[in-house]
Amino acid sequence: MGILVIEDEEGLSEFIELELKHEGYEVSTAYDGREGLKLALEENWDVILLDLMLPSLNGIEVCRRLKSVKDTPIIMITARDSVMDKVLGLDSGADDYLSKPFAIEELLARIRVILRREERRNDPQTLNIFFKDLVLNIESRMLQKEDQLIELTKKEFDLLYMFMKNINRVMTRELLLEHIWGYDTEIETNVVDVYVRHLRNKIDPMNKEKYIQTMRGMGYVMRE
């Protein structure tokens, strides 16, 4: 398991690195925001520990830029523990927030929680499928978007399931029709467009194609 520590207090950074290595983690460190962002983008990390107050580029901006292209779990670490600071950190994409001073046992526990969560997310047998802020539960056939539960019809669920199981793959209307309505169906392919529109209205009322993108002359795709 690889952990990146982005912390400008060298004494604290070295202490965290030592403790993490003692627990069996592989650890790299960076002492300013730009260096940390570069390492975060260049390599794949299981967890990033990110200080809020950093030279050259603050932790909020590092988090925001990283989360725009990667979904690496981030624990924000800072001496500033006001509610607004926590909200700002979490809104920028941080997965957890730990205030200084902290016990190393608490940090280790929070890392384990995140690693277990990521393991469940990547488990092919999991009941949930994830895409951006959408969580599709196969057992209940319900969709969750942030804190909102969205009810789907059977066809809407089947359609969304196909998209979320085939991220970055363009799904033609013919393929969707075959898999969802059946190989011998006499339904016209434009029915796919109708159901995609219904689905978009539920998951993105502004209809900005944030989730399901139209590929002209081809079909549809959910793209990371």
Key terms:
21% strand; 224 residues; four-stranded antiparallel β-sheet; 8 helices; alpha/beta; five-stranded parallel β-sheet
What would you note in describing this structure?
- The structure is a single chain.
- This protein is of the alpha/beta class.
- Helix 2 runs parallel beside helix 3 and helix 6 crosses helix 8.
- The mean pLDDT is about 85.
- Strands 2-1-3-4-5 form a five-stranded parallel sheet, with helices on both faces. It has a four-stranded antiparallel sheet with strand order 6-7-8-9, with helices on one face. Strands 10-12-11 form a three-stranded antiparallel sheet.
- Helices cover about 40% and strands about 20% of the residues.
- It is built from eight helices and twelve strands.
- The longest helix is centred in the middle third of the chain and has 18 residues.
